[in-house]
Design brief:
The protein starts with a helix and ends with a helix. With 276 residues, the protein is an all-alpha fold. Helix 4 runs parallel beside helix 7, helix 4 crosses helix 10 and helix 5 crosses helix 7. The protein contains 13 helices and no strands. The longest helix is centred in the C-terminal third of the chain and has 33 residues.
Amino acid sequence: MKGKRIRILISEILFLLLTIICWIPIYYFVIGAFKERRDIVKYPLKVSPDLFTVENFTYVWKKMDFLKTLGNTAFITVMALVIVIVCSALAGFAIARIRRRMFQVYYSLLVALMVVPFIGCVISLVVLSNRMNLYNSLWGCVLIQAAWNMPFAVFLYTGFMGGLPKELEEAAYIDGCSTVQVFARIFLPLQAPVTATCCIRCGIGMWNDYLVSNSLLNSARTPTLMVGIQQFFGAYVSEYGYAFAGIILASLPILVMFVFLQKYFIKGLVAGAVKG
């Protein structure tokens, strides 16, 4: 018993140390957002009222045209999430509840697409969007983000719906419901956990996207948050204080969303990981 307590104590100490190590970079850029550049370099981890300033935030707000970049990023994220959730929920319902070989083959192909590296498709996506007159268009980014995140979302919805009792579906059919009514009245109200998981998991990736926005959009006319933050990192000089302030401002909407949806997050991941 004593040896077991010692092992638990050692494990807790190691866990605490690893947690502190993980929090050091977050601590560094949070306090750096309230310092001037020379103070960040000279006193990287020091906190003092003499070093405190909010000028970084006011400069970033004007330099990035923050409301415009926030609007562009929010438009891409929200519209892409709507497409992903609607299409993935319908696809997950069909794959999990309608036992046809065609749907199973389609599901296998979607799961296989999850391992394809995105950077390998950038050139072809740029060429395709240019031919479809979607280059330098927010809708081009919306469609690409939706298509790229859909395999993961379909995987979650399929696992979630496959784990639901079949008796619910059979009872609805006995009561005279059609397939559409079964989905809308039975399955749709139960999808809150997996929908919240998709919003957090896919939404964070869309919100923090740099590669697609930088490849498809004109950064001067239609900037996004990550493209705007990147301008503070130059080839010879990097304005760390401005960049850290921009990161904090860009992170606030995602933090708010996570606070409201966190109770569904773990439940949705566990449910979506069950194969139906």
